[in-house]
Specification:
- By secondary structure, this protein is an alpha+beta fold.
- The protein has 2 domains: 125 residues, Holliday junction resolvase RusA (60s Ribosomal Protein L30, Chain: A), CATH 3.30.1330; 37 residues.
- The longest helix has 15 residues.
- 29% of the residues are buried.
């Protein structure tokens, strides 16, 4: 029997959902995460057109993202389970603010602090241009959960109900939020 190549294994294996990725699931659940890294390249310089290959990440973007993920990963940040709010603090620079936000959120996702950057996981994003500094600081906070909902989650968990069942019980919480309550995380 012939061994499969790595690319063939990736094609044949089940694709993981964002909240199932090991870089996300292996982190402890926390209520707030603060990460600092260097200023990213502008969104206008993240991808290049390469004919038959289509759009590919530029060398500058790959280098920045790998460096940012490595630098932030050294501090071993936790993860935000469920939806979160994001505030990006940017140092002084020339150009559009929104062009710097996308690479920052992509780096946080790659690091495993959030499962994905879709609207199911990132509720609000805001940016603050700081008057001084050289680093980007990104603050992610879980969406606050009502105290009555917290209490009900805890009671249902003590009764032996699963996270998925509790989330489906009509409280309007996601499985990630239920996990956050059970982990004791608060914003």
């Amino acid at each position: 029997m012939e061994a499969l190549s790595a690319s063939a294994l990736r094609r044949n294996s089940r694709r993981l959902k964002p909240h199932e990725r090991p870089c996300y699931t292996q982190r402890p659940i926390v209520g707030t995460v603060t990460i600092e890294f260097p200023m990213p390249p502008s969104a206008n310089k993240l991808y290049a057109n390469r004919g038959a290959q289509g759009r590919i990440k530029t060398t500058a973007y790959r280098a920045w993202r790998n460096g940012a993920v490595l630098l932030a990963g050294l501090k071993r940040p936790g993860r935000i389970a469920g939806p979160c709010d994001v505030v990006v603090h940017l140092p002084p620079f020339n150009g559009d603010t929104d062009n710097r936000i996308k690479p920052c959120i992509d780096a946080v996702k790659e690091l495993g602090v959030i499962a994905d950057d879709s609207k199911a996981y990132v509720r609000n994003v805001s940016a603050i241009r700081e008057p001084a500094g050289t680093q980007v600081r990104i603050v992610l906070s879980m969406v606050p959960i009502d105290e009555m909902d917290r209490a009900e989650v805890e009671v249902r968990a003590k009764e032996g109900q699963s996270v998925a069942y509790i989330a489906a019980c009509g409280m309007g919480l996601t499985e990630g939020q239920v996990q956050a309550v059970l982990a004791g995380a608060r914003p």
